[in-house]
Amino acid sequence: MFNFGLDRRTITIIIVVMLGLWLLNSGTSGILNLLLTIPGVLIALTFHEFAHAYAADKLGDETPRMQGRLNLNPLSHIDPFGFVFLIVAGFGWGKPVQINPRNFNGKYSLSKAEAIVSAAGPIMNFILAFVFLIIYYVLFNITNVMQGLSTQWQLVVYQIVLYTISINIGLGVFNLIPLPPLDGSKILMHFLPYNGKQWFYNNQQIFYIVFLLIWITGLSSTILNPIFNGILSGMDWIVYNIFKLLMLI
């Protein structure tokens, strides 16, 4: 998603400094939260990028397949910067899945096919959040599975599951912002008229600046938090009522 044009050594130094400063400010609780967050981050980013690759492959473009992206190995999909940012800043990205629209099978228009590939990532994150919400209810509201563990381990599992839910919803919502370089911009492009597409394409640099300003000023949280809370509440309502209908709670 983002290309900083930096060599591996510089990237490593920046990442180490970022993590070091974050951990110094967070203390012991920060280290614990880091460890509990990592599983959710790995799951969210890996499945997000895999979904892009899978959608492109199904539409006829074998570029992701040839680049080894049709797997669930985190090493194939994790971008170091994006991984760290998702941990320390609450948003992030994976290694971009490269596609060649000219290879699509023609079942859909190019713009629609690109929109489908772009939407696949956030949709996958919402599906994962829903699945882990079901897991949460099964583990902590329905069965007695967790009672066999100590209180400390119950808390660890509880936090990992909740972090995984929130990270997936957050990543999905964040990527749907209709600004380059996020997935939402490519989805929006499909629905714009021809002149709108041209104008949007010709002014992408401006939208990059707008995106950075929204992020730096913290306005993104003001905009996205209500959406995040609405999606979480909606999913929770659905899962709760499904189990209630099944008379499990």
Strand content bin: under 5%
**Which residues sit in consecutive blocks of at least 5 with pLDDT less than 50?**
none
Report the biggest beta sheet as strand number plus sense, adding barrel if it closes.
none
Number of helices: 10
What level of helicity do the residues show? Answer: over 70%
Terminal Cα span: 42 Å
Instruction: State the secondary-structure class.
Output: mainly alpha
Got a strand count? 0
> What is the N-to-C order of secondary-structure elements (H for helix, E for strand)?
HHHHHHHHHH
Our count of domains comes out at 1
Task: Categorize the overall geometry.
Answer: globular
How confident overall, as mean pLDDT?
86
Keywords:
249 residues, mainly alpha, 74% helix
Describe this structure in words.
- By secondary structure, the chain is mostly helical.
- It has one domain.
- It has ten helices and no strands.
- α1 crosses α4, α5 (110-142) runs antiparallel to α6 and α5 crosses α7.
- The longest helix is centred in the N-terminal third of the chain and has 51 residues, at 8-58.
- The protein is globular.
Blueprint (SSEs and pairs):
Layout: H1 8-58, H2 63-66, H3 74-77, H4 80-88, H5 110-142, H6 151-175, H7 183-191, H8 194-202, H9 204-216, H10 219-245
Helix pairs in contact: 1-4, 1-5, 1-6, 5-6, 5-7, 5-10, 6-10
Summarize the structure.
With 249 residues, the protein is mainly alpha-helical. It has helices at 8-58, 63-66, 74-77, 80-88, 110-142, 151-175, 183-191, 194-202, 204-216, 219-245. Helix 1 crosses helix 4 (80-88), helix 1 crosses helix 5 and helix 5 packs across helix 7 (183-191).
